Amino acid sequence: MSQSIDSVPFARPVIGEEEIAEVMAVLKSGWLTTGPRCKQFEEDFRAFIGSGVDAISVNSCTAGLHLALEAIGLTADDEVIVPTHTFTATAEVVRYFGATPVLVDVEKDTLCMDVQAAARAITPRTKAIMPVHYAGRACDMDAIIALARQHNLKVIEDAAHALPTLYKNKLIGALESDVTVFSFYANKTMTTGEGGMIVTRNPDIAARCRVMRTHGIDRDAFDRFTASHKKPAWYYEIVAPGFKYNLPDLAAAVGIHQLKKCHLFQQQRQAIAEQYMHELKHLPLDMPTDVPAGDSHAWHLFVVQLHTEKLSITRDQFVMEMSARRIGTGVHYMPLHRHPYWKNTYKLDDGMFPVSTDAFNRIVSLPIFPDMRAEEIRAVVSAVTDICRNHMVKAA
Q1: Residue-range definition of the domain harbouring residue 349
Q2: Domain check: are 48 and 142 in the same one?
Q3: In the listed set 260, 283, 306, which residue is the last one of a domain according to the structure?
Q4: Domain check: are 145 and 34 in the same one?
Q5: Following CA atoms 180, 186, 191, 197 in sequence, which dihedral angle do they give, to the nearest 10 degrees?
Q6: 188 is catalytic
Q7: pLDDT reading at 50 higher than 80
Q8: Which pTM value belongs to this model?
Q9: What is the C-alpha separation between 181 and 65, in angstroms, rounded?
């Protein structure tokens, strides 16, 4: 029997008894911060991605991106190419060094970085390219990596949306980029509440990130107090002015079990996405485009684009009507070039980013999460259908 519902949240984490039991075990262990669970989580993540990568846990994807840029030696004289259609963290970490994020437009069909726009943005000061796998769909990584190699640039993938995304039958994280950084924020495809993971094959980058995530200390606290060393257990050395970016065992305990469910979560998200596309395809909306053969979509977000010329309401009015029906939605994203800091600091305007600007006026992210019930999916479909049909512009 179907259940009536009062509301549908935009996102809802799926936490099972396994995660709860692991957290309880940590609380009883007497070791709460970075320790054995973090080590296990990192080992599990290395095995999950494969391809000989190393994995360094951190307390956010933002922290991971910051450490990645520090590890490649970014300086104030450098530039990093970043898509405008992203969350501010992607660009703000560049500013932490006094360096310049150079914003570029995105592709119309995918809202991922436009590689040709990135190519035009390269200057002698360019140090790296930072693609964002928007909504869980992979960027054109062959083209981006080829462009980077041509100009001797680093590639740092912002994979906050992209676990477990496939690109040409390889997991994001297993490609030939320099660094990939994942997010485990509460609404992501798996969660530790707050947290992230740096993945790299470069041992120098891995070692630098590991040291810099905890104040530039040359030994993790857990290693100092559990391992056998020639020096006293209390002894450590500061080798660089680092940061406080380590992931605690309490968070890693959740991640250990979320990772085991990651492929199942993707399958559940995929099923919801397919139902949305089937049920909403006759409405004045652009659905997410199909991924190429050999790719898969993580479906962190399900983003539709309103045909605003066929509707008598704006995107914002659509969102308000969804809210009146107690259906959670999002807008991902207001492009960086529209935010006051980025717009004013770098003298940016809509005309410089026509694709992202047009998309921003039309995009709405619908609820999608693994344990979404059938009646919740029906409620979303019903609300979107009613709003579109009620506001269809009549032909002259």
Answers
A1: 262-390
A2: yes
A3: 260
A4: yes
A5: 30
A6: yes
A7: yes
A8: 0.96
A9: 6
298 is a domain residue = yes
Whether residues 204 and 351 share a domain: the answer is: no
Reduced to 3 states (helix: H, G, I; strand: E, B; else coil), residue 231 is coil
Question: Among the options 28, 188, 244, 261, which is catalytic?
Answer: 188
One domain, residues 161 and 31 = yes
Indicate whether 174 and 274 sit together in one domain: no
* Same domain membership, residue 56 and residue 21: yes
Task: Report the C-alpha gap between 49 and 66 in whole angstroms.
Answer: 21
Does residue 4 lie in a domain region? no
pLDDT tens-place string over residues 327-362 = 999 999 999 999 999 999 999 999 999 999 999 999
One-letter amino acid for residue 130 of the chain: M
Whether the predicted pLDDT of 173 surpasses 50: yes
Q: What percent of the chain has pLDDT over 90?
A: 93
Q: How confident is the model at residue 132 (pLDDT cuts 50, 70, 90)?
A: very high
Q: What's the distance, CA 175 to chain centroid?
A: 16
Q: For 188-220, how does the pLDDT look when each residue is reduced to its tens digit (9 = 90+)?
A: 999 999 999 999 999 999 999 999 999 999 877
d(CA 258, CA 117): 37
At 35 the pLDDT is 95
Q: What is the pLDDT of residue 1?
A: 40
**Residues 6 or more apart from 392 whose CB is under 8 A from it?**
284, 310, 311, 312
Domain count, the chain: 2
Nearest to 107 by CA among 152, 144, 79, 78: 144
Q: Average model confidence (pLDDT) for the chain?
A: 96
pLDDT > 70: percent of the chain: 96
pLDDT in tens, 1-13: 445 689 999 999 9
Among 260, 284, 309, identify where a domain stops.
260
- Kindly tell me the number of DSSP H helices and DSSP E strands found in the chain: 14, 12
- Do 254 and 19 touch, CB atoms closer than 8 A? yes
DSSP assignment, residue 327? B
Cα 367 from Cα 130, distance rounded (Å): 27
Measured from the Cβ of residue 233, the count of other Cβ atoms closer than 10 Å reads 13
Q: Which of 174, 87, 194, 190 is nearest to 130 (CA)?
A: 87
Candidates 374, 364, 395, 356; CA nearest to 285 is 364
Q: What is the CATH classification number for the domain harbouring 361? A: 3.90.1150.10
- The answer to whether 198 and 64 are in contact (CB under 8 A) is yes
